[in-house]
Amino acid sequence: MPPSAETLARSEWIRRIVPYLCALPPMVFFGGVLVWVALRDPAFLWNGLSDVALGLVALGLLALRRRLPVLIAVVTVLMTLVSTTATGPAAVAYVSLARRRPLRRFFAVAALTWVCMASQLVTTGITQQTYISLLAGTAFYLGLTGVALYLRGRDEVAASQRAAALAAEREQRQRIEQARLAERAKIAQEMHDVLAHRISLLSMLAGGLAYRTDLSPEEMRATAQLIQENAHQSLTELRAVLGTLRADAAPERDGDAAVTPPQPTLADLEKLYDEVRAAGQKLEVHDRLSDREALPTQTGRHAYRIVQEALTNARKHAPGSRVTAEFDGRPGEGLRIRVSNPVLPGTPAGPGARLGLVGLSERVRMAGGTMSHAIEDDRFVLDVRLPWEA
């Protein structure tokens, strides 16, 4: 759960105030020493006041340490030459520089800091106390350097984690977008398979009414009823496809029950055969499947759509010709579907030519199978092989 705005504001306020809190202890310590010296020697009062004033100026300069880290670090360390209370702000600027700028600049300022510290110590003369103070100051700044480099490393790790999180978020958004595009393509393919089959049946039935003058009134009524049934079935199947592919499918308006999408399998092929035969398509089926009950439902669904599209293509490109559909396969060997029809010269391809084969190829590929099509002995042959397992 992401932090609230109040939590973020509080953490930002703490992050901004902590450097000043870190700079205050050395200022308070050296300020106390200056007060003690001034009480003992009133002549030192002016020097003490100027020292504290420069320390406060250095503390105020810390507000610019993020925009001008190198400049603020150099200025504050130079101020330590004449102000002991500036040591605290200079140390904070020193650490801030290490966190925000290249190491070569940091080490250059580190060398300047050591030189300023040494110069300040030797101005009173070189004694044993000077060496001890120099060693102590060097150890202090070495420790401060270690802290600065640790904070720098932690910042870099946090930055890399944020970058990785952003990259993962972008990748997740891309995956979601790809899934949406794939779903849209799937919807388009399903709509093509369903509607092309139904519309081609309607076209065949309507053509029979338009050109056949020998139909009796009963036959005309039967054909009209078939047209009506197929039109109604087209709408039903279209709504069913949309209901299948939309994860957020909801009940229809006006209190209607939600559409329960059909899941056609090989068991529904007989109904498909009856529909196309009733519409006038000549169909011959050779079914040599073994243990068809063991065929996974998803594989059966793909097989149904493949046969449906193959019969639709045959009605488009070889109307009135006899279509042969062959099935073979068994568990462990896969499912083979072979649909063929005569090639009629001069038959117009019609709108959407070859789009059905493109869609079939994509469906077969997604199912893990293979598809080929060719003209053999003046017949167009569609050969599909699907893995038995889903």
TrEMBL record:
Keywords in alphabetical order: ATP-binding, Kinase, Membrane, Nucleotide-binding, Phosphoprotein, Transferase, Transmembrane, Transmembrane helix, Two-component regulatory system
Residues of the signal peptide: none
GO molecular function: ATP binding; phosphorelay sensor kinase activity; protein dimerization activity
One GO CC term, this protein: membrane
rRNA-binding keyword on record: no
InterPro entries xrefs: HATPase_C_sf, Sensor_HK_TwoCompSys, Sig_transdc_His_kin_sub3_dim/P
Lineage: Bacteria, Bacillati, Actinomycetota, Actinomycetes, Streptosporangiales
Annotated catalysed reactions: ATP + protein L-histidine = ADP + protein N-phospho-L-histidine
EC number of this enzyme: 2.7.13.3
Pfam families (alphabetical): HisKA_3
Entry annotated with the keyword Membrane: yes
This protein's name: histidine kinase
Residues of the Signal transduction histidine kinase subgroup 3 dimerisation and phosphoacceptor domain: 183-248
Superkingdom in the source lineage: Bacteria
Membrane-spanning intervals of the chain: 17-37, 44-64, 70-94, 106-126, 132-151
